[in-house]
Amino acid sequence: MSEVRNTPITVAMLGCGTVGGQVARLLHEQADDLTARIGRPIRLTGIAVRRPHRHPEIDPELLTTDAEALVDSGVDLIVEVIGGIEPARSLLLRALKSGTSVVTANKALLAEHGPELHAAADSSGADLYFEAAVAGAIPLLRPLRESLAGDRISRVMGIVNGTTNYVLSAMDASGSGYAETLDEAGRLGYAEADPTADVDGFDAAAKAAILASSAFHTRVRAEDVHREGISGLSAADVAAAQLLGRTVKLLAICERVVDQSGAESVSVRVHPAMIPRAHPLASVGGAFNAVFVEAEAAGQLMFYGQGAGGAQTASAVLGDVVAVARNRVAGGYGPRESAYARLPVRPMGETPTRYHVSLDVADRTGVLSQVALVFAEHDVSIAIVRQEGRSDEASLVLVTHTASDAALRSTVDKLAGLPAVREVVSVMRVEGEEA
Amino acid sequence: MSEVRNTPITVAMLGCGTVGGQVARLLHEQADDLTARIGRPIRLTGIAVRRPHRHPEIDPELLTTDAEALVDSGVDLIVEVIGGIEPARSLLLRALKSGTSVVTANKALLAEHGPELHAAADSSGADLYFEAAVAGAIPLLRPLRESLAGDRISRVMGIVNGTTNYVLSAMDASGSGYAETLDEAGRLGYAEADPTADVDGFDAAAKAAILASSAFHTRVRAEDVHREGISGLSAADVAAAQLLGRTVKLLAICERVVDQSGAESVSVRVHPAMIPRAHPLASVGGAFNAVFVEAEAAGQLMFYGQGAGGAQTASAVLGDVVAVARNRVAGGYGPRESAYARLPVRPMGETPTRYHVSLDVADRTGVLSQVALVFAEHDVSIAIVRQEGRSDEASLVLVTHTASDAALRSTVDKLAGLPAVREVVSVMRVEGEEA
Questions:
Q1: Closest CA to B76 of B101, B44, B46, B103
Q2: Is the preceding peptide bond at A344 cis, omega within 30 degrees of 0?
Q3: How confident is the model at residue A34 (pLDDT cuts 50, 70, 90)?
Q4: Does residue B99 have a known ligand-binding role?
Q5: pLDDT score recorded for residue B68
Q6: Over pLDDT 70: what percentage of chain A?
Q7: Exposed site from A170, A190, B89, B377, fewest CB < 10 Å?
Q8: What ipTM describes this predicted complex?
Q9: pLDDT of B140-188, one tens digit each?
Q10: Pick from A316, A331, A338: which is nearest to B147 by CB?
C-alpha cells in the first residue's frame, strides 16, 4: 500500500446521544470492513459534547466542548447528530463554507434551513448527505435522487412517524380512543413525554419537506407543508374507516399536480387519511415506517423498515460517511444535488383530494336530497353513498370523487349547518385508491 | 453557460428490444430534465441492432449493425440491453478495457462473468452499473452497496421472479395444481412460451448471485448458487403450508453464516419455502417482486415493486445512465465496487435450514416414536408435531428446528423408507421465522 492509501479519512462528530453513541461504536467495530470498502481507513478525531463526564464509554481524549474548534480542525467530514436548529445550523454552515463535507441526521434543520445549507455546500463543492434525516435506516433519499434520477416521480406517500403509527395501529386494533391510546404508548416507550412534535405532525412535515425536495428537484421547506396531526381523531373515525374496509394512517404526501393549463406544482401535506386495507401501506403496523413511491416508468415502489432508533439511524449515517469518504478517495466530492425544477407549492385549498363524510341525520323523506344538493352546489361529485336507518335517526356515509380541498371543506361546513344533520360523526380524507 | 457545460455526454446503445425501446423513448422525452439533473445534455449517438428494418420508430440515422464500431466510437458510455452471453460479453469487455463506462441490465452475463467484467472495469477505472439486472425498477443494488455500506448485512431474502410468484400466488388462491396454473399463466402472458429459465429457478439464481456479491462484498457466480425450481410443487404442498398458516414462495436467499469456530461463509440458494402469512414477503402477490434485507444496525428492511417490464427496467437503466453521466461531469468515474471479503460459498448440505414434513402414516401405536427416532438419529430437533387420525390412517406434520440441510435430507429419505410411512405428502423448507 502506498502512503496515500494509508492516510486516514478524518471524521469529527458533533453530539453524542443515542445516535452518536451508535455511530462511534460502529466506526470502531466495523473499522476493518469500512477500510476495505472505502480504500482508506476512517479515523474519528473528536466528538463535541456539552458535558464530557456524561460519556464515560468514550475515550476522554476524543471529547471536547469546543465544537467550533473541532469544525475548524481540518477534518475531511463532520457528522452532526446534535439535532435542533442552533448551534447545529451555524456549525454546519461554517463547515460547508470551508469545504468540509457534512453528514447529518437533522430533519428539522434541513426542513427549515435546507436552501441555506445547500447553497453553502454548492459554494465550496463540499458534500452534504442526510439519508438519516428521513425514515431512519430505510434507504430512501439515495433511491429518490439517484436510482430514480432518470424517471419522473409523480407521488411519494408514506408513513414516516413511528409514534403516530403505533397509536393509530393500536386504535384500529382495540377500538379505543385517542387519549387513552397515547397514554399507553407513552407507558410502553413508544411516545415521548411531550409528544407534540409527533402527534401534531411537525416531525412528519419536516420529513415531507425533505422528501418533496428530493423527489421533485425543488426546495420545499417545513413551512410550505400543510400539516394536520392525529390529536383530533376519535374512535368513531377509526370505526368509520373500518366500516368501508379502510384503515386510518397519518400520511406524508408529496404529489406532482398538473392543472388544466398544463402548469405543474407540488402539493406537500401531512394529514390523517383513510386508505384501503389492501393498500401496501395499510399493513405497516406499530412503529414501522414505509414509503410508497410512484414514478412514470418505474411504476409503484415501496420502501419499508424501522424509521427510528439509535442503531437504525446510525446505519444510515454510516452509509453516508462511507459515501463521502469514497468521494474523497476518488478525488473530491460527489455529484451535486439539483433543485432546478423550482416548482411552486400548491396551497392546500387548491389541492385535489377526496373526502369521506359520516353523518347522523334525521330519518325522514328528503334528507338525502338535501345533503346531495349541498355536494352538487359545491361541484363535488359523490362516489359512494350508504344510508342505514335506526328508529328516527339514520347514518349516512358519503365518499366523494376528487375535488379541490377548499370545495370539500366548504361542503362539510355547509352540511354541518343543515337542520336535518344531527351530527357530523367523522370527516376524513381518502387516499390510495383511484378516484 | 460555458462551452464545456454544453458538451453532451454521449451514449451508445447495444440492442433495442422491449427495454431498449423504452430507454430510447425516455432519453428523448425526459431530455430537458436529464440535462438539468446531470448538468450537461445527454446525446444518444447510435443503436446497434441486428435488423434495422424492424425498428421503424427509431431515427434510421441512429441504427447500425456494426456493434463493434459503435463500441469503439469514443462515446462516454454504453448501454447494453441485448441480453444473453455473447456478443454482449465481448462487446462490454472491449468497452470497459478501453475506459468506456457501461450500464447493463444483463443478469445472466453478470452472474456468469461478473468477475471478468469487474476486472476489466477496474483495469481502466470505467464505471460498471447494473441496477436493472435485479428486480427491475426496484432500487436494490445501490441501497445494498451504498446506503448500507456502513452496516453489516446478514441476510437478503427475496421474491425476484415474477412468473413463479404469479404461479404460486394463483395456486395458493385457487388450490389448483402446478401444471394447470402454469398453463393459465402462459395464456395470460405471465409466463414465456418456454418458461424453463423462470420455473427451474435459473433467472432467480442469477439474481441471487448478483445480490450476494453486492451484499457480502464477495464475488458469487450463478454456478455457486444452489437452485431448485417450482416444477415439483403440488397442490398438496400448498395446502400443507396453508394448514400451518404459511404460504409457499420461491425465494432467493443470501445469508452470512458463521460456524462454531467463528469462520464466515455465505449461503446462496434459490428454492421454494414456506413462510408465515404475517411475513412481509407473504403478501407480495402476482408478478410483483420484493426483497427483504436484514442488517446488524439497520434491522429489517423491505424493497417492493415491479420486477419486470420494459418501462420499469428502463427506469433503472436511466438511473444508472444519470449516475455515470454525473460522474463524468464531476470529473471522471465513480467509487469502485469492492469484493474484498472473498467469503467462501457454503455447500447446500452444510447450510442450516429448517424442514416441514407432512406424512401419511398408519394409525397404530408406536408410529410416532418410530418417526421421532429417525429425527433423533440425525440429530434433528423437532419444533412442531401435529397428528390427526382418520380411520386406520393418520396425517403427521412435523416442523424441525434448524439443522444442516444434509441431515434434514437424510432424515426425510429414511422416513420415506419406514414401513409405517404410507406416503411423504410434502417436504419443504421453512423460512422467515425464528428457529
A1: B101
A2: no
A3: very high
A4: no
A5: 97
A6: 98
A7: B377
A8: 0.90
A9: 999 998 899 999 999 999 999 999 999 999 999 999 999 999 999 999 9
A10: A316
pLDDT by residue (tens digit) across A169-199? 999 999 999 999 999 999 998 888 899 999 9
Pick from A27, A281, A301 the residue to mutate for testing the B interface (most B CBs within 10 Å). A301
What CATH superfamily is the domain A3-136+311-330? NAD(P)-binding Rossmann-like Domain (3.40.50.720)
Above 60 in pLDDT, residue B435? no
Ranges in chain B annotated CATH 3.30.70.260: 348-430
Annotated binding residue at A15? yes
Q: Is the pLDDT of residue A79 over 50?
A: yes
pLDDT in tens, B102-128: 999 999 999 999 999 999 999 999 999
- The pLDDT tens digits for B374-384 are 999 999 999 99
Domain with CATH 3.30.360.10 in chain B: 145-306
Asked whether the predicted pLDDT for residue A3 surpasses 80, the reply is: no
Pick the residue of B27, B151, B159 with the most A CBs within 10 A to test the interface with A by mutation.
B151
CA distance B128 to A33: 22
| For B321, nearest residue in chain A (alpha carbons) | A150
Contact list, B153 vs chain A (CB under 8 Å): none
- By Cβ distance, the residue of B30, B142, B329 closest to A150 is B30
Secondary structure in 3-state letters for chain A: CCHHHHCCEEEEEECCCHHHHHHHHHHHHCHHHHHHHHCCCEEEEEEECCCHHHCCCCCHHHEECCHHHHHCCCCCEEEECCCCCCCHHHHHHHHHHCCCEEEECCHHHHHHHHHHHHHHHHHHCCCEECHHHCCCCCCCHHHHHHHCCCCCEEEEEEECCHHHHHHHHHHHHHCCCHHHHHHHHHHCCCCCCCCHHHHCCHHHHHHHHHHHHHHHCCCCCHHHCEECCCCCCCHHHHHHHHHCCEEEEEEEEEEEEECCCCCEEEEEEEEEEEEECCCCCCCCCCCEEEEEEEECCCEEEEEEEECCCHHHHHHHHHHHHHHHHHHHHHCCCCCCCCCCCCCCECCHHHCEECEEEEEEEECCCCHHHHHHHHHHHCCCCEEEEEEEEECCEEEEEEEECCEEHHHHHHHHHHHHCCCCEEEEEEEEEECCCCC
Q: What number of CA atoms fall less than 13 Å from residue B370's CA on the CB side? A: 17
Backbone torsions φ then ψ of B205, nearest 5 degrees: -65, -40
Residue-wise pLDDT tens digits, B411-434: 999 999 999 999 999 999 999 886
State yes or no: A389 annotated in a binding site: no
Q: Does residue A365 register a pLDDT over 90?
A: no
Domain A348-430 sits in CATH 3.30.70.260: yes
Report the CATH fold assignment for A141-308. Dihydrodipicolinate Reductase; domain 2 (3.30.360)
| pLDDT at site B1 | 41
d(CA A340, CA A342): 6
Instruction: Considering chain A, tell me which residue range(s) the CATH 3.40.50.720 domain(s) occupy.
Output: 3-136+311-330
Q: Which fold has domain B145-306?
A: Dihydrodipicolinate Reductase; domain 2 (3.30.360)
What end-to-end distance do the CA atoms of chain A give, in Å?
62
Mean pLDDT of A278-291: 89
Mean pLDDT of chain B: 93
